[in-house]
Each structure stands twice: as structure tokens, then as C-alpha cells.
Amino acid sequence: MENIGTIVLATGALGTAAFGIVEALKWTRVGEAGFKAIVKMLGPVIETLEVAYGPKFKDILRAHYRGERREFVRMIRQGVRIGLTQDNAEKMAVTLRTVDAAKLKDAARLVGEGGELSSDLRNTLGRFELAVDARIDAALTLAQARYVGTARGLASVVALFIALAVGFYLGNDYIFQALLVGVAAVPVAPMAKDLVSALQAAGKAVGTRV
Fold first, then answer.
1. Domain ranges within the chain, ordered by starting residue
2. How many Å apart are CA 175 and CA 173, to the nearest integer?
3. Whether the Cβ atoms of residue 140 and residue 73 lie closer than 8 Å to each other
4. Which of 19, 52, 68, 206 is a plausible cystine mate for 82, CB 3.0–4.6 Å?
5. Contacts for 76-81: CB closer than 8 Å, 24+ residues apart
6. Cα Rg for the chain, rounded, in angstroms?
7. How do residues 148-166 score in pLDDT, each as one tens digit?
């Protein structure tokens, strides 16, 4: 039992280390995994960000995408609200299909002119922002799912590489065992601690009965 627990713990440690290495690469192109889903899901809505942040808005988005999720969402929402203008309001309304295009255009015009919005136009603007928030949440969920998938795949490669390197270092007799540990490292890593605790408890129970 103790040997099995040690193997599981080592496997989990390798998987955790592999994930750590991948996380350290987040500020490289690896950190952009899933970013294209954001652009695709937002569709024409992303054009408002160019109005708000300028022609290099995608570079700004990429930088925030690698960082804190809450800050990334805030940055997009704020950009969409700032970038909504009389010129693009109709296109945004058609894209989101939840607000009246003419009313949204009037609301954007009044906001741009510093005018006072009627309650109806405020409701229209609120529905627009709610629809944008839903689109952002959906885009980010898809993007994060793709990033996690990429990270797991890369972590598996890293874990396998480390395990085989250790196996070759220890000798040919350990290559197969090292290969098994490397393959199991990534999926086992999140639950390694629980598995080890369960095995230790089982070992104690067996020892007590004996």
C-alpha cells in the first residue's frame, strides 16, 4: 500500500510540475490558446473595441487575456460601452438581435452628445449591455475551455518528456515504468492527494487488522 501511495504521489507531483511549467509559459504564444474564440464569438461587436482602444486593440486584448479574467471582462465591457456610436449602433443591434436598432441608434447619439436619455432609451441601452455581457461570457467560456485543453495536452507532453528523461537516467529497466508514470501524470495530478490519503487510510486499516 505504501509503495502504491508513493507511486501515486510521485505521479501527481510530476503532473503538477508539468502544469506549473505550462503555466509559466502563459506569457508566450501558449497563453493565447483559445483567444481566437473570443474574436469569433463577439463577431461585429468587437469593432466597438477599435473605436474605444484604437487600431491595436487586439494586442491589448491579448495582453489582458493572459492575465486576470475579471479584468479582461471589465476591459471588454467598458470598451463596448465606450465604442458604441451612432454609426455602428444599428449594426450592433442587428448582430445581437435583442434591441431595436433605431432606438439603440438614438441612445448612442444622445450619449455621444451628452443629452438626457428617456426611460425607454435607457432600457434599450440596458438590454444592449445585457446582451453584450451574455455574449462575452459565452465567448470567454469557450475560449477558456480551449485553453485548458491546450494546456492539458502540452502538460502531458512535458510530463512524458520528464518521466522518460528520468527513466533513461535510472537505466533501461525503468523506461517502461517511467513511461506509465508520464502518461498517468496529468490526469492523476488533480486527484493525487485524495488517492494517496485513501491508500494510506486503507494501509492503516489493513495493518490494524493484521
1. 2-209
2. 6
3. yes
4. 52
5. 76/42, 76/49, 76/136, 77/129, 77/132, 77/133, 77/136, 78/52, 79/48, 79/49, 79/52, 79/53, 80/45, 80/48, 80/49, 80/52, 80/129, 80/132, 81/129
6. 26
7. 888 888 888 888 888 888 8
